[in-house]
Please model this.
Amino acid sequence: MKMIKTATTGMITMAMIIFLGSTGFAAGNKGTLTVSATVLGKLSQTTVRQEKMLTITSESITRGYVDIPAGTTLRVKSNDKNGYLLNFYIDGMLVKEAQVSVNGRRVSVPSGLGLIHQPFPGIAGETLQITYRLFLSPGMKPGSYQWPVAVSASLL
Model:
């Protein structure tokens, strides 16, 4: 970040020297100098909590789904006013579809890759509480399985 500020300051100084050099210091000369800057989008994420295993019982197979009330807690900071994407990868061998609830907003995500747009969280960022209803793939047997959902955040 310091290198970008130094480069920006150097470019502004150079533009002013060129501008002043071409117009001179004579009284009455007027000119306009326009400076613009582009702020690159930045995003950081921290997984605060993540389930590691999925336990499937005979009852969950009969029901056809498993509810996970506190599956993932994710901390996201972004400076992009357009918001960001939550990327969900759902393992289709275990789960055919997931209902994902992010801070109370419920979205259906098919197995494979699903994207959910999140609005700009403000400069302080946000902590997301993600819950799941995982609809089981046909032929599942009771047991403990590796957690079938991977979550990440990315810029648009």
In short: The first strand starts at residue 43 and ends at 50. Strands lie at 43-50, 53-56, 65-78, 84-90, 95-102, 105-110, 112-118, 126-136, 143-146, 149-155. The mean pLDDT is 85. The longest helix spans residues 2-23.
